[in-house]
Amino acid sequence: MDEREFLQGYDPAAYDRPSLTVDLVLLGISQGQPAVLLLRRDDHPFAGHWALPGGFVAMDEGLEDAAQRVLEDKAGQQAGHVHLEQLYTFGAIDRDPRMRIISVAWLALLDEAAFAAALAGNPALIPARVVLDGDNATAIGPDGMPLPVAFDHGQIIALALTRLRGKIDYSDVGFALLPECFTLRELQQVHQAILGTPLNKPAFRRRMLDKGWLTPTGTREQGTSYRPAELYRFKNPFD
Amino acid sequence: MDEREFLQGYDPAAYDRPSLTVDLVLLGISQGQPAVLLLRRDDHPFAGHWALPGGFVAMDEGLEDAAQRVLEDKAGQQAGHVHLEQLYTFGAIDRDPRMRIISVAWLALLDEAAFAAALAGNPALIPARVVLDGDNATAIGPDGMPLPVAFDHGQIIALALTRLRGKIDYSDVGFALLPECFTLRELQQVHQAILGTPLNKPAFRRRMLDKGWLTPTGTREQGTSYRPAELYRFKNPFD
DNA sequence: TCAATAGTGTCTCTTAGACACTATGAA
DNA sequence: TTCATAGTGTCTAAGAGACACTATTGA
After folding, report:
1. Which nucleotide is at minimal CA–C1' distance from A205?
2. B96–A contact, CB cutoff 8 A
3. Chain A: closest CA distance from residue B134 (Å)
4. Coil vs helix vs strand at A103
5. At what angle do helices A201-210 and A184-195 cross, to 10 degrees?
6. Distance from B5 to chain A by nearest Cα, in Å?
7. A145-163 per-position pLDDT tens digit
C-alpha cells in the first residue's frame, strides 16, 4: 500500500467511493424446474422490470450479515435455515445508470416450503422459471411469458444456476433444496431440475448411497397411490 | 429497492460507505512448489508483515480493470498476458483495523518467465512458497522461514490455491503457468505442484492428449543430457 | 555402451449407463 | 388382481492407477 493509499485510509472523505450492495438469487424448484424470486421495480431506472432482492451494506455489517438481513427482510427466512453462498462481485462502471454501485451477489437455496413461505409472506415477490441462455438467463413469469430483468441481474441468475450445476454432483448443496426427510426419487428430481437433463435411476441411487450422506429413517412417504418409498435424511459424515 | 435506498441512490453523501480495494494473489511455480509474490508493509497496521499487492478501486474503473492496473503497476505484467480470475470478496468488519475496507480478491497466474520478470522489475516483491493449512495458508520466505502475513491475506492465499486445485483437472488454467511451448513432463510437474501430490505418468499423458488441447510442435526441448521430449502448444479447441 | 528420461502396452479396478428384472403397497 | 412405482442384478463401456516394457538421445 503506497503513501497515497495510506493517507486515504485515514481520511474517509478524501475520495469518492462506490456504493456497495448485496443481491440475492433466491432459488428453488417449482414444478420440476429451477425458479427464482423477483421483485418488480416501480421506479426509474428499469421501472416495470424485475430485479433480485437486494440492499445496501451497512458500515457496521459484514457482507454475509447483509445478505442474511436481506434474506430475512425480503423472504422472511430465518438465519441459518437456508444455504447461503457468495457467488461473484459485479462492478461494471455502468451497471446502474444512476451511480457507481458494486454488488456482491449471493445464492440462497430454498426448499419447497421456504419458497412457498417467502411467496406467501411477501406479496411483491413473484416466482420466475429460469432458462439458461449462454451466460445470460431468461426469467419466465407464472403466465409463461418472459419477464424483463433489471440491471445485470440476468447474468447474475445465469451464474447462480451455472455454479449450482457445477457442484450439485460432488457437493451436498442439493439437500438444501429438499425438506428434512425426502425420498430418493425427490432427490433425483431435484438433480434433474438443476441439471436440466434426465438421470439414470440405478446409477443415481448407487452414487448417492455410496457417498454415505444418506441415513434411512425407517419410515415411508404417505399418501401415494402406489408403493411408498423410503424416506431418507441428509447426514453430513463430518458431523 | 425501497424508498430509503432510492433516495440514497441520488445522494452519494447521504451515508458512509466502505472503501473498496482489489487484492491480487500473484501465483507461480517456484522450485516445483506453488509460490506467491508478497510486499512488505512499512507502516501501521501490520508493519513488517507481508501483504498481497493491491489498490483502491477508482470511481471510473471496473473491478477487473483495477486488478489489471495493480498487475501492471506491481508486477509489470502486460494486460491480457496473464490469466486473471475473480476469487471472492472479503468484507469482515474488522479485517482492517483502520477503517471498513471491502476487498475483491483476484487470482493471477504467472508462468516462470513472468514470475521472474515481476521479481526483477519490482525489488520490493519477494517470492513465498505456499503451504496450505486448512482454510489458511502459511507463506514460507526464501530463507525457509514462515513470513507473518498481514490482514486476512493468509485466507485469501489459501482460497486461491484451493480454487486452483479444484479446477486444474478439468479446466485449462494449468497452461497459464507454462510458457507457450512445453513438454508433457513440465505440464505434469505443474499439476503436481498445484495438487501437492505425484501423478501417474501414463494416465496423465492419456488424459491430457485425449482432451484435444495439445498440438505437437514437431520440435523438441534442447539442452538436456538425455532424450529430449516433444514440445507441445496449448490450443483451445473452441478457437 | 550407459544413463536417464521419453513414450507405450496391458492388466485391473472403479464407476456410470443401459436394461431388464423382482418387490411391494394402494386401490 | 392390477397398476405404478420402489428397488436390485448384471452386462458393458469408459477412464484411471499400476507396472513393466520399449525407444531414443546425449555423454
Report:
1. D7
2. yes
3. 15
4. strand
5. 110
6. 7
7. 999 999 999 999 999 999 9
Q: How many angstroms is C1' of C7 away from CA of B201?
A: 10
A10 to B98: CB separation less than 8 angstroms, yes or no: yes
Pairing verdict, β A101-109 and A54-56: unpaired
On whether any CB of chain B is under 8 Å from the CB of A165, the answer is no
| pLDDT more than 90, % of chain A | 87
Picking from B41, B49, B68, the residue whose alpha carbon sits closest to that of residue B57 is: B68
Give the CA distances from residue B54 to residues A153, B37, B177, in Å, rounded to whole numbers and listed in that order. Answer: 28, 12, 21
- Closest residue by C-alpha to C1' distance, nucleotide D23: B227
Q: Is A14 on the interface with B (CB under 8 A)?
A: no
So what's the pLDDT on residue B100?
95
Query: Which three cell numbers mark A42?
Result: 416501480
A2, A17, A93: which to substitute to probe chain B, counting the most B Cβ within 10 Å?
Answer: A17
d(CA B191, CA B22) in angstroms, rounded, equals: 27
Block residue for cell numbers 539442452: B223
Query: Where in chain B does DSSP place strands (E)?
Result: 19-30, 33-40, 50-51, 54-56, 83-90, 101-109, 125-133, 136-140, 146-147, 181-182, 214-220, 230-234
Task: Provide Rg for chain B, Cα atoms.
Answer: 20
Q: Specify the DSSP element, H or E, that contains A86.
A: strand A83-90
User: pLDDT for B121-157, tens place per residue?
Assistant: 999 999 999 999 999 999 999 999 999 999 999 999 9
Q: Which nucleotide is nearest to B183 (CA to C1')?
A: C6
Q: How many angstroms separate the CA atoms of B19 and A5, rounded? A: 11
Q: CB neighbours of B168 closer than 8 A, spacing ≥ 6?
A: B174, B191, B194, B195
Reported confidence tier of residue B7, pLDDT bands at 50, 70, 90: very low
C strand bases under 7 Å from protein CB: 3-10, 15-20, 23-27
Q: Model's pTM, two decimal places?
A: 0.93
Mean pLDDT in residue range A15-21:
87
Of all residues in chain B, the one with the smallest CA distance to A85 is: B88
Angstrom distance (rounded) from CA B227 to CA B222: 10
Residue A228 Cα, gap to closest chain B Cα (Å): 39
User: Cβ separation of A104 and B89 shorter than 8 Å?
Assistant: yes
